[in-house]
Amino acid sequence: QQQVKQSPQSLIVQKGGISIINCAYENTAFDYFPWYQQFPGKGPALLIAIRPDVSEKKEGRFTISFNKSAKQFSLHIMDSQPGDSATYFCAASRDYGGATNKLIFGTGTLLAVQP
Amino acid sequence: GAVVSQHPSRVICKSGTSVKIECRSLDFQATTMFWYRQFPKQSLMLMATSNEGSKATYEQGVEKDKFLINHASLTLSTLTVTSAHPEDSSFYICSASDSWGETQYFGPGTRLLVL
Predict the structure, then answer these.
(1) Peptide bond connecting A8 to the previous residue in cis, omega within 30 degrees of 0
(2) Nearest beta carbon to residue A101 from set B91, B93, B97
């Protein structure tokens, strides 16, 4: 119940296309869903995050779509660029009231954007 | 934005020696810090959670006597890998969250190679 399932494992997209990465969870207590971007040899960087009270959040070319009833959320990268080539991780956590909010990570998606 | 640093970025050591990795929050006070390890092409695995001034909480299967964590101040946590062996070679990443506890900001990681 603590797992976050992520797909696809890898993704190849043409420059200018839309990259879509999906995640699903079981634990309905999760209430914070961030996406992280990681380049080789670097630490993950927070891209965008959403809470279950909204169905969509957009920041620039990155959009999170959230389906609470299906317990699924996805990351859409519009107008994908070669510089977006990285590994993307979805994650989920439960609010313990400001205490230790452990992140449960998905397995990651390796995105390659071809020029 | 919140910045987390790690030192060193890379370390090579002989089997049996101990290695200390520092994690610092540069522009905020980190109530909680997390330590992860990541193997090539895999997701992040949480090792332990530490709160300033208290003992770290280790995840199941992580040897607390081997991976010593100290969180002596609101801006510094250290991970010491004691009596390192080749199987401890990995990418170690720390993260820190502020008093709100929701968002984790990751450091750039430390590559450990034990010969």
Answers:
(1) yes
(2) B97
